[in-house]
Amino acid sequence: MNLREKYHIPNDSIITIAGTVGVGKSTMTNALADALKFKTSFEKVDTNPYLEKFYADFERWSFHLQVYFLAERFKEQKKIFEYGGGFIQDRSIYEDTGIFAKMHYENGTMSKTDYETYKNLFDAMVMTPYFPHPDLLIYLEGSFDEVLKRIQERGREMERSTPISYWEEMYNRYENWINNFNACPILRINISDYDLMKEENSVEPILEKIGHFIQQSRRWEARELIK
Ligand SMILES: Nc1ncnc2c1ncn2[C@@H]1O[C@H](COP(=O)(O)OP(=O)(O)O)[C@@H](O)[C@H]1O
Ligand SMILES: Nc1ncnc2c1ncn2[C@H]1C[C@H](O)[C@@H](COP(=O)(O)O)O1
């Protein structure tokens, strides 16, 4: 019996990994996809034509970057829809608007007009049949010091040279965002409770929780449909 069957995880599941920059989303995405034999949907950092420019000048590039991310994520959503699920997704589309665009607008590094244009586009895109909400959003959390250490150690120069206050504000916004998030079921996991780098088996307790959560929420959805 494979791990997907062992933990009763449906093969059409869509699982999204959320959390602040550097917390460990990509690592978790790879580990879960490997264990479940699911496909992955990643944010492409190396080929993003705006990201470095954005870190050098938020005001000039924040709108361009948000539109770019939105287009990329929408293409990924469409792909997930067309395959009929079976995906682990690195970062949710909800974070683009709920964290990044909002933060830059509220800090004055995105204009009101640009923010409204972006929000209109976002709302129009998300309200289409191509947009399957995930079965589960796994929220990775940990101490700010550990997150900062991981950003430093990963070594993307544009992130290392960004002021710590930027990461601190993002960290705090994430806490607030997740406490108010209700678009799909959430599983919160603390990064100090597992170590995917050193202990191969540490993915299994996570799979067990995922299976339990998805079973529960699908039963709930089935009951709602009958009502
Ligand atoms: N469980 C872990 N223990 C130690 N380091 C980790 C762990 N998970 C990820 N990392 C490291 O932290 C850094 C950021 O991880 P990554 O998965 O790229 O985060 P994200 O996708 O959230 O930005 C990487 O250098 C990665 O190797
Ligand atoms: N929507 C976004 N706006 C600004 N910056 C973003 C957005 N989505 C991702 N990013 C940045 C943050 C990091 O520098 C890279 C990749 O994120 P990661 O959390 O490391 O996967 O892109």
Quick summary of this structure?
The chain is α/β, with parallel strands linked by helices and 227 residues long.
What is the strand and helix layout of this fold?
Blueprint: H1 3-6, E1 14-18, H2 25-36, E2 39-41, H3 51-56, H4 58-83, E3 87-90, H5 93-106, H6 112-126, E4 136-141, H7 144-154, H8 157-160, H9 164-179, E5 186-190, H10 203-226
Parallel strand pairs: 1-3, 1-4, 2-3, 4-5
Helix pairs in contact: 4-5, 4-6, 5-6, 5-9
The structure holds adenosine-5'-diphosphate and the ligand Nc1ncnc2c1ncn2[C@H]1C[C@H](O)[C@@H](COP(=O)(O)O)O1.
The site of the ligand Nc1ncnc2c1ncn2[C@H]1C[C@H](O)[C@@H](COP(=O)(O)O)O1 has 14 residues, from helix 2, helix 4 and helix 5.
Globally, the shape reads globular
Q: Alpha-carbon distance between the termini?
A: 35 Å
Helices, by number, come to 10
Computed over alpha carbons, the radius of gyration is 18 Å
Residue stretches low in confidence (pLDDT < 50, at least 5 long) are: none
Number of strands: 5
Structural class: alpha/beta
- Classify the beta-strand content into a percent band: 5-15%
Main sheet properties: 5 strands, parallel
Average pLDDT, rounded to a whole number, is 93
Ligand roster: adenosine-5'-diphosphate, the ligand Nc1ncnc2c1ncn2[C@H]1C[C@H](O)[C@@H](COP(=O)(O)O)O1
Placed side by side, the strands forming the largest sheet appear as: 2-3-1-4-5
Helix content: 55-70%
Helix/strand order: HEHEHHEHHEHHHEH
